[in-house]
Amino acid sequence: ECIQADITTLDVSQAGRSIVTTADGQSYNGNALVIADGHQTSDFLSAYSDDPDFFQSPYNPGAIKDRLSGKTDAVGIVGTSQSMLDVLAILDHIGYAGDIYAFSRDQVLPWAFHPEKYDGPEARPTYVPVILTAKQFEDTKPSSALLIKALHDEIEAAAYDDFDIGHVITSPLLKQEVETLSQKPEWADACRILRKQIAKIYGNPTSPQRHDLFRRYLDSGQLKLVQSAVKEDQIERLDAGYALHGLDNREGGTLAVAALFNAACYTRNPLASPLLSQAFAQNALNWDED
After folding, report:
1. Chain-wide mean pLDDT for the chain?
2. Sign of CA dihedral 218, 222, 226, 230
């Protein structure tokens, strides 16, 4: 049954049932509740939202087409997750031929999710880690960078045996290895950062078709990844477009772009969702502070 209404309150009873109440006072209850109330917008870079060369989100294809059709100047995308793919899809649709720079501090990129590898006759078995293991780090000085490199080496090695990234980061055996490492006080902080990196990767699967689009732009050289954060105080308005200053791994640290897309326009804090906040307040979530 599909009900068109605004949900205003959530009550989780002691018996484990969830009751939601709509704005008009109707209540509905069930044994389980899935909260899928969408992205919560943030005010990141909103100071530029009225600029004609700035796109506060990637979801205005008409304005993007009007502004960029026929141009070949470089453009910039802040963020390299799912919204970056939406920008690429629109730029591909309008036949944009200029260079595209995508900025991200952590360089967490979308990965291709193949459903058949997880269910049915082609499903892969549980992935067994061989690089990111407690044994491998018995005599190693702890650092988060070392663990994150081991994670990416693990992902690369797994691909040779036809395991997706998802197999690696959801492997209970990998989780067990990280938990074992975490028991050592000297590894605790590094493992906490590693788990955050795993969570970011976990949230970035995309369809093989979308991933093929991403790879096509990347392999052709039209899409260029820049490992650097972009903050408001790094952006300078120009007569046409923007200058981005203080870029970490770029010679001179400055790049000019004709347009800028905010592909980090949604908050990463799930508690920005009003219903999730209510659930959290009632101890209804199995919440991991890490």
Report:
1. 90
2. negative
Q: What does the pLDDT read at residue 251? A: 67
Specify burial of residue 20 (Cβ count, 10 A radius: 0-12, 13-18, 19+).
buried
pLDDT (tens digit, 9 = 90+) per residue, 82-118?
889 999 999 999 999 999 999 998 888 999 999 999 9
Among 172, 170, 194, residue whose Cα is nearest residue 182? 194
Amino acid identity, residue 31?
N
For 235, half-sphere exposure in the C-beta direction (CA atoms, 13 angstrom radius) is: 25
Q: Is 88 exposed, middle or buried (0-12, 13-18, 19+ CB in 10 A)?
A: buried
Query: What does the alpha-carbon distance between residue 14 and residue 126 come to, in Å, rounded to a whole number?
Result: 35
Q: How far is CA 264 from the centre of its chain?
A: 9
pLDDT score of 173 more than 90: yes
CA–CA dist 268, 266 (Å, integer): 6
Contact 245, 234 (CB under 8 A): yes
pTM of the complete model beyond 0.85: no
Q: Would you mind telling me the total number of residues written for the chain in this entry? A: 290
